[in-house]
Amino acid sequence: MDLGIKDRVAIVAASSKGLGKATALGLAKEGVHLTICSRDKAILESTAEEIRSQTSVEVLPIPCDVSKTEDIKNVVNETIKKFKTVDILINNAGGPPTGGFLDFTLEEWQKAIELNLFSAITFSNEVISYMKKNKWGRIINITSYAVKQPVDGLMLSNTVRAGIIGLAKSLSNEFGGDNILVNNICPGRIHTDRIVFLANDRAKKEGKSFDEVIDHMGSDVPVGRIGKPEELAALAVFLASEQASYITGTTIQVDGGLTKSLM
Over 90: is that where the pLDDT of 23 sits? Predict the structure, then answer.
């Protein structure tokens, strides 16, 4: 299938590893030129070289803390300097700390909002004008299945990531006429650093081994296993493509059937 996005330009946030890296590589394999960003400059440079070695696209790595507005603005500005435009935005960020409502200070709530919600608002705000000019754009938010089914012990994520869904639906309505499509992807249990962190945290709390917790996390999924980053990336690449030209305002989980809600 020709996805029709060769030579498009994408910004993929938090893309030195995990879901962001898998998505960036998936786009690169379709001929999309990339700006990738993360806080760890060394890992970021290594990822950029890895993508270049596997594809023929240009990759611009820019260190960025997505919780900082000025860093986000710099990523977009540098992308425009190099590529002249932005066609695809993948909003992505690490998960906030685990815990219940009474475990967090207001300052910690603010940090979670800045990391997981305001970063998506800021990136979207910075790129939409270029997409409007071109009458073509894709914004894809990588969130969590917790937006459809709150997870015990993930109070910050349950709350803050849900705001992205409201943002995306509103943007899809406002800018659909400009051919800017906005969708959300909700990963379930996928083998990334985040799932390793959550498994270790749960193992300590329950007095179990890491392997026991990981095995249980997989057995609890209807398909019987934890997912792979490239399985989520496949959906992100499709949603970024011409083949998804009539899909907008949707929230799709990639979770092996873990989510029990109907919608």
Answer: yes
94-124 per-position pLDDT tens digit: 999 999 999 999 999 999 999 999 999 999 9
Domain 9-189+228-254: CATH architecture, name and number where available: 3-Layer(aba) Sandwich (3.40)
- CA separation for the pair 83, 81 (Å, rounded): 6
The 3 state secondary structure assigned to the chain is CCCCCCCCEEEECCCCCHHHHHHHHHHHHCCCEEEEEECCHHHHHHHHHHHHHHCCCCEEEEECCCCCHHHHHHHHHHHHHHHCCCCEEEECCCCCCCECHHHCCHHHHHHHHHHHHHHHHHHHHHHHHHHHHHCCEEEEEECCHHHCCCCCCEHHHHHHHHHHHHHHHHHHHHHHHHCEEEEEEEECCECCHHHHHHHHHHHHHHCCCHHHHHHHHHHCCCCCCCECHHHHHHHHHHHCCHHHCCCCCCEEEECCCCCCCCC
Separation in Å, CA 14 to CA 122, 139, 212, 262: 14, 15, 29, 30
Question: Is the pLDDT at 54 greater than 90, yes or no?
Answer: yes
- Average pLDDT (163-182) is 98
pLDDT tens digits for 202-230?
888 889 998 888 888 899 899 999 999 99
